[in-house]
Known about the structure:
Order of helices and strands: H
Amino acid sequence: xxxxxxxxxxxxxxxxxxxxxxxxxxxxxxxxxxxxxxxxxxxxxxxxxxxxxxxxxxxxxxxxxxxxxxxxxxxxxxxxxxxxxxxxxxxxxxxxxxxxxxxxxxxxxxxxxxxxxxxxxxxxxxxxxxxx
Length: 132
């Protein structure tokens, strides 16, 4: 059978890694398999059928550390501070408008009280003038 196979000549193959073939240097070549290939099971026969595979103990995937100098990180921080600033300005404007309205209302009430006193004093003076 060894006589049927020719010995491969190495020849001159540029760029090809040459290694010892099984049929070189007096080794015999295995006969080719005939018929169906056997089933190659990847299951350990010692483990009973139906058992789930064991949980693999892998290290927890560490989150990628965030670079504090990242441009997008700085931009998001800027947008957050800008939003806070706008909200504060809006609240301040609403509060200022409310205070202004409150001051105007107080002034009107005080002016109404003063006008009422002036009318009362005028009516008293007119009554005194009519009595004389």
